[in-house]
Design brief:
By secondary structure, the chain is of the alpha/beta class. Helices cover 29% and strands 25% of the residues. The relative contact order is 0.17.
Length: 250
């Protein structure tokens, strides 16, 4: 049985469609990456999967007792608040020292337990958020642009840690990423989303699709180009849409 199955999932906000007829599964141990422009519904989709958002129609079917760890895009903590990493991991529910230490070690942050949250670097902060997501020993780890704001070496190091976690725990990973090298090197499957699934499959297959190529401009050095995607719904079932319908911002 798949960990998560989406069947004809549609979500509307204030009467406006955000996601329409989304269908896919997430299986044990695989890494799936979502790509798409701002406003394409990526974060909305993640919220539906974790159960924070109710579908307008369709279904989100989770394996019984599914444990999900979630690493948010960002988290603001008041810099004046005296909060150590160890204390942070016990909010709102206290965890034992052994569980906290194991999670920090798995996240590559074992030396940070006594540090103040306000004094962590960006990369250290994200590893602590990863440790928090690992406290439940997740079967599915979800990351919503978890490397936003990190430099390229910091991002590469973080995603290497994600691969280590996948190998250690055997968990599936669903992540949103705007980094081309991550999509191609770290994913078993890529899903291009823009309110609906435009194209999906193994990275090599998706990379040859016009929709996917239109997401990435030249000279972006791995960053996802900003673009406006005017998709013709008559082409929903394939990856052969005319790339001229996508306008990449310089």
């Amino acid at each position: 049985m798949s960990l998560v199955t989406l069947k004809d999932l549609s979500i509307r906000h204030s009467g406006n469609p955000v996601l329409t007829d989304v269908n896919f599964t997430i299986d044990k141990g695989e890494i799936v990456t979502l790509v798409g422009p701002n406003g394409s519904g990526k974060s909305t989709l993640l919220r539906a999967i974790i159960g924070a958002l109710r579908p307008s129609s369709g279904q989100v079917i989770r394996a019984p007792g599914l444990r999900i760890g979630y690493v948010p895009q960002k988290l603001h903590i008041d810099a004046t608040l005296p909060l150590t990493v160890r204390r942070f991991l016990s909010l709102p529910k206290r965890v034992s020292n052994s569980v906290a230490e194991q999670a920090l070690d798995q996240a590559g942050a074992g030396q940070l337990a006594g540090r103040q949250m306000s004094r962590l670097s960006g990369g250290q902060f994200q590893r602590v958020l990863l440790a928090r997501a690992l406290l439940c020993d997740p079967q599915l780890l979800i990351l919503d642009e978890a490397t936003q704001g990190l430099d390229q070496p910091g991002s590469a190091s973080f995603y290497q840690q994600i691969e280590t976690v996948r190998q250690q725990l055997g968990c599936a990973v669903l992540m949103v990423s705007h980094e081309l090298h991550v999509v191609m090197a770290a994913s078993d499957r890529v899903i291009c989303l823009n309110g609906h699934i435009c194209c999906e499959g193994e990275p090599e297959h998706v990379a040859s699709a016009p929709e996917y190529r239109a997401l990435f401009g030249t000279g972006t050095q791995g960053a996802l180009a900003l673009y406006r995607h005017e998709h013709n719904h008559s082409h929903d079932s394939d990856c052969g849409h005319d790339p001229q319908s996508h306008k990449a911002a310089e």
